[in-house]
Amino acid sequence: MPGTADGRRPDDLSMNETPYPPLPAIRRLLQDRSAEINRYPDRQSLALVAALAARLGVPEDAIVVGPGSAGLCQHLIQSFGSKPEVVHAALTFEGFPLFVRNAGARSVAVPMTGYGHDLPAMAAAVTGDTRCMLLCNPNNPTGDLLHRDQIEAFLDRIPGDLPVVIDEAYREFVTDPGATDGMDIYRAHENVCVLRTFSKAYGLAALRVGYAVLPPRMTPLARLIGAVFFPGSLAQAAALASLEPDVTAELMQRCASLAVSRARLAEALRGLGLTVAPSEANFLWLPLADQAAPFAARARESGILVWPVAGAGVRITVGSDEANDRLLEFIANAWLSARGPQPGSIAARQR
Asked: SS3 of 131, please?
């Protein structure tokens, strides 16, 4: 990554990565296993599948392991048949429309209500051409969280055989005491699939490993579509080790610390006069509307990378304390001071 004009390395707050380095136990494991990279990995990921099944209390034929939750999402869409439409929220994970196109379908993007999914409208969008539904929970990029009663009411409105994929890539960062576990919904419905990843909270983004929990009748075709020797052996080993109780406990401590940083950063941003959406993920959403692209460009000039959605807002990953401080310094000294409290602007409205 190129440096900034003053020689500092840019802070990348655009990719929703964890700010923490790999745990020492995982680093040692990867070093030890690197001597085996001349060998193909276990194509069926048998050890990891068995460990996940035991952890989740489901049969092994309900688990599909693959290249992160993103790669698995595309595999699932491909495996659900040939109907031409996939329904998802309009402002959600930027990969969804790409996965839908790659699977030979077209997106039916349903406008949001506030920062979250409009589930009644999504249910109303279902037709005989609908292949499946995609829910991102917490939602990327807004951080909004759907609760069980909302999802259950939604499921009651749609056909019971229509696949619904709940993408829980950020579930480890959720602190809402009323939050539901997607696995509980999975157990209660025969059309629900759950996606999870080791890329975010577990810090294995470069290794590309995640898993799907499916109704067993859906598993064979999903596995067949993804049967190309991935994840690699190092990814499988690291994910398996991450499920060990002592490693998981340390990871959860990191998630708790990040949640504290998330709250502090949100409070500081609001203190600067910015609107910040409530978030249950490891990022924050600033609904900057037409100022999103200029904000991201100015941030880049200051050595900070964020994720803009043109005309809507900016997603900012919660980073290290140093990176968060640099972001706040940029906003206070380079963004707000240059623009001033313009009439109608977010800063002006909240001062």
From this structure: strand
Q: Cβ distance 322 to 249 under 8 Å?
A: no
CB 123 within 8 A of CB 152: no
For residues 218 and 345, state if they share a domain.
Answer: no
Exposed e or buried b per residue across 29-65, where buried means at least 16 C-beta atoms within 10 angstroms of its C-beta? bbeeeeeeeeeebbeebeebbebbbeebebeeebbbb
> Of 161, 154, 102, 156, which is closest to residue 130 (Cα–Cα)?
161
Contact 42, 65 (CB under 8 A): no
Tokens of 165: 């994929």
CA distances from 193 to 134, 183, 212, 269 (A): 10, 9, 7, 36
Whether residue 180 sits in one domain with residue 79? yes
Angle in degrees, CA 167, 293, 336, rounded to 5: 110
- Residue where one domain finishes, among candidates 219, 243, 267: 243
Domain count, the chain: 2
Per-10-residue mean pLDDT of the chain, 351 residues long, equals: 60 96 94 93 95 98 96 97 98 98 98 98 98 98 98 98 98 96 98 98 96 97 87 96 95 97 98 98 98 97 97 98 97 85 38 30
Handedness of CA 90, 94, 96, 100 (dihedral sign): positive
Please say whether the beta carbons of 70 and 168 come within 8 A: no
CB 203 within 8 Å of CB 21: yes
CA distances 309 to 239, 266, 293, Å, are 32, 19, 7
Beta-strand ranges (E) seen in the chain are 11-12, 63-66, 85-89, 106-110, 130-136, 164-167, 192-197, 210-213, 283-286, 304-305, 307-309, 313-317
DSSP one-letter string for 225-249: HT-SS-S-HHHHHHHHHHTSHHHHH
pTM of the complete model? 0.93
CATH number of the domain at 307, please: 3.90.1150.10
Who's near 274: CB < 8 A, 6+ residues apart?
286, 331, 346, 347, 350
171 DSSP assignment: G
Provide the Cα torsion 318, 321, 322, 324; round to 10°.
40
